[in-house]
């Protein structure tokens, strides 16, 4: 079994430093966030000053901040990326999340390196290679089963294994989708995906017959591993990652709080495991993942291939069931709420399905209760009734934004405190306060004073305890509080006691800061580890000469340039995915196996996806059970200004 640490890390996303701070408050052991540039989310960058502010807050709780520097880079961008790495290191960041191996050829600071999901880590051999070249944390592909995850963990001797447990699912193997670049020139590997996977498509067979009409057949439901955490721990996962660097504050609070509670249950059951940071989180609300944006839940392939992993009807958030329409008027409609549903609010967002089964959304302008039970309501929408397609009596309603819930999460919704043992004791020249926190850091401060015994010892003891325990505004809360006297309790003016407590806390915080240690940078093995293959195609995303040299140094003989170099002009795989459209439409030959009258008549022949003028071909590789979405780069993309074309060979050599 892997020698990975026995700490469990809850890793939360942050679009901004403020969201990152709330992720820490709601229980995250680590946060990943974009710096000013080169993060794989185009509009989720943050200034160095904000990174520094987030780092200071996180480190108070021994939590960590990881910076996403995980796009593929052109040759002319490498120096800027190197400078950025040093800037975030000097700001105190704990690790870089990296896709481009060219960075490993540069003069990087001694900061820990984590392999991005964009590295497409599907095999134990790939994971082991990344460990051996200097990565301390690797993220297993979302498509892996528990057995495959366990095999990957067992292949690692020092690196920690990370796995996505919640959030949006990219249908492609990470780093293996080029549709966006082929159709628009916007590269997913450079943080600018156009999300072609969320579009509706006609699915057409080889004879031109429509197999599915206007279905979002490449759109997945959202990942939810809530029920699998113990199994993932057993398989060797140590970092549990939430997707969502585009998500809002409420989403991050809710989902982080949800998994904090679940992981704390696991830690309570298993004393051999420990939390990845300090302190205890106390939530002021009950987390509910269904209330945050989601497309329905799936645990994807963790427990093997499942029938229902797609959000084929809509890629939008339908929300929770609300009730049904009971009457439609000229400028309003009435609805009856389901049993147990919370009241409507002005500003709520509702959804329903029209007669074509398309999701329609509306915003509540004014909601008025029509009965004392708060189950019958009149809704005046923001939109004219005529604009609400197919709104009719008995149509089922859902609510995808609940203003009452939003208001709960807009307020302070969690606090995080570090357990502290406090001992007030009598010493020859007065009194002393001794502090010891849950991490073993200590402080000791003496207060000289003229001793005066309290006239009412019991009352004095109670007052001293109450005053000492007042730690509001700090990161601490009293766990144990002891008072030791050589005789009856001393009288101590509260002003002096408060000053003593403040001084002791300041010294404790200084001791915690002095004990802070950066995460160690892993040392690559020598001689250099050999890459598992000797030839790399465009699928390896090598976009600069430093990355090419990295792979050549590790035994690869031929390295093709990334798809973004625009040398692949014909039909190629623009996406590789474990999701199978034939399987989801019950057209898989393996499904037909053994079915009388069907076996042998269903073949994995190509299908075509059509969206307007866009056409893609689906080809099925049944041995590894994978689907390839095939197409070619558009002429309009080739005509765009190409900043820095890269070509490694005048003519491709033989491997």
**Strand content bin:** 25-35%
Instruction: Look at the helices and sheets and give the structural class.
Output: alpha/beta
Rounded Rg: 29 Å
CATH class of the largest domain: Alpha Beta
CATH topology of the largest domain: TIM Barrel
CATH architecture of the largest domain: Alpha-Beta Barrel
Largest sheet: 8 strands, parallel, barrel
Number of domains: 4
Q: Largest beta sheet: what is the strand line-up?
A: 1-2-3-4-5-6-7-11
Give the strand tally: 30
What would the principal axes of the Cα set say about the shape? globular
Low-confidence stretches: none
Number of DSSP helices?
Answer: 15
What is the residue-averaged pLDDT? 94
- What is the fourth-level CATH superfamily of the largest domain? Aldolase class I
